[in-house]
């Protein structure tokens, strides 16, 4: 078996900020998501095919590499981004941080809604439907006219071949 070839199907992954708060409206917070994804790609934990970062949720198509499971990747991503979002709010807007305070036995703050959506993309048709859904999310939200005009998305990569973030792999493998 080739140990560098992924053994898991690509995943359509959606994570939502708790109570649909618009925490990711701030581009610095979007950059936390970008930096986390870049790390996962550079560390060869995932192959990232597509993404969009909206003001209160994210959609991804990613595929864990051989040594990782989807749940490993999801847990580390959620934990790391929550820690960085907390640090960002604590440093610049402590009052806003209080909006994410929870009374839970295992945490003081919660940024992500529990149980994010993760769907295996087992067919080309479903894969393409999710890819289009991701790219048209900002258009449907009225943030842009064309999908490739929204900066925090992989649409530009698929429409005109530019990867502004240097972390994407085309779904065809190129």
How is this structure best described in words?
This protein is of the alpha+beta class and 174 residues long. Helices cover 38% and strands 19% of the residues. The chain contains five helices and six strands, in the order βαββααβββαα. The protein has a four-stranded antiparallel β-sheet, with helices on both faces. The protein has a two-stranded antiparallel sheet with strand order 4-5. α1 (27-42) runs antiparallel to α2.
- Name the shape in a single word: globular
Order of helices and strands: EHEEHHEEEHH
Overall SS class: alpha+beta
Mean pLDDT: 92
What kind of sheet is the major sheet? Answer: 4 strands, antiparallel
End-to-end Cα distance, whole Å, is 22 Å
Helix % is 25-40%
Work out the strand percent: 15-25%
Spans of at least 5 consecutive residues with low confidence: none
Radius of gyration: 16 Å
Give the strand order, joined by hyphens, for the main sheet.
Answer: 2-3-1-6
Number of strands: 6
With helices defined by DSSP (H or I, 4 residues minimum), what is the helix count?
A: 5
């Amino acid at each position: 078996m080739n140990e560098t070839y992924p053994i898991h199907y690509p995943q359509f992954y959606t994570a939502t900020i708790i109570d649909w708060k618009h925490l990711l409206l701030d581009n610095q917070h979007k950059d936390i998501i970008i930096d986390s994804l870049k790390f996962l790609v550079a560390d060869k934990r995932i192959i990232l095919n597509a993404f969009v970062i909206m003001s209160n949720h994210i959609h991804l198509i990613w595929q864990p590499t051989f040594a990782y499971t989807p749940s490993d990747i999801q847990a580390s991503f959620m934990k790391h981004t929550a820690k960085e979002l907390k640090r960002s709010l604590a440093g610049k807007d402590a009052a806003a941080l209080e909006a994410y305070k929870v009374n839970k036995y295992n945490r003081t703050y919660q940024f992500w809604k529990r149980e994010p959506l993760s769907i295996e993309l087992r067919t080309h048709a479903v894969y393409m439907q999710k890819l289009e859904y991701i790219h048209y999310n900002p258009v449907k939200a009225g943030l842009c006219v064309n999908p490739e005009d929204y900066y925090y998305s992989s649409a530009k990569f698929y429409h005109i071949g530019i990867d502004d973030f240097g972390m994407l792999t085309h779904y065809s493998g190129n």
